[in-house]
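Page 42, continued from yesterday. The earlier attempt failed because a stray header line got pasted into the input along with the sequence. Redoing it now with the clean sequence only.
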Amino acid sequence: MSTVKRKSRREKAAETRVRMVEAALEVFGENGYTGTRMADIATRAHVAVQTLYFTFHTKPELLQACYEHAVLGPEKVAPMATPEIRAAFSARSGRTALRSFVEGNTRIVARAAAIDEVARAASHEPEALEVRRHSEQLRRDGYRSVVTHLQERFGLRDGLDEEAAVDLMLTLAGGATYLSLRSYGWSDARYVEWLADLLATQLLRRPGRAT
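This time it went through. C-alpha cells are written below.
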C-alpha cells in the first residue's frame, strides 16, 4: 500500500510564497503599482493579509520579489547561468554568440517585461523606482559581461566603445521593445531572429576589418 508523502512546513511555506508572488504579478499588472493594495494581493492569493506582510513586510519588498521570480523563472536560474547565455561565451562567432544571448534573454524578458513596465510607470513612487533601478543595474552588469566578451573575442564595430554597446543592448533587448513588437503580433521566434540580426549589425566589427 503506497503512502503519500506529506509536505514539510518549509515546502508549504515555499509554495505559499510563490502563490503570493504570482498573485502580486497579476494584481500589479491589472491595477498598477500605485493602485494595488497589499490586501488585494492577499485576497487573490487566498491568504490573510497578515501572512503577506509577515513574508514581505512592505509593498516595495514584494515588488522586488516579483522581479526576482520573473527573472529567475521556475528553475530559479540566474540569467548568466542559463544554458543559452552560457553558450554565448563558447560560441565560435560573434553572430552565434549574440543569437544564443538573444534566445536566453528573450525567455527572461518574456517573463519580466510586464512587471518592469509596472515599476517604470510608478513615477511618483520612489521606493518602486529604486527597485527598478536596482534591477536595471543588475541587467547592465550582466549585459556588460557579454559585451566585454564580444569585444575581446570578436571585436566591436568601429567607433563603438563598450559602454555605448551596453546602452544599445539594454535598449534593443529590453522589455519595452519586446512588449511593443508583441503588441503588433510578433511571435517570440520572429523577435529573436530580428534582434539577433540587429545586434550583430549594431555591435560587431565587420568581417575583414583589422583587429
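Notes: Residues 94-121 form the longest helix (28 residues).
Reminder to self: strip header lines before submitting.
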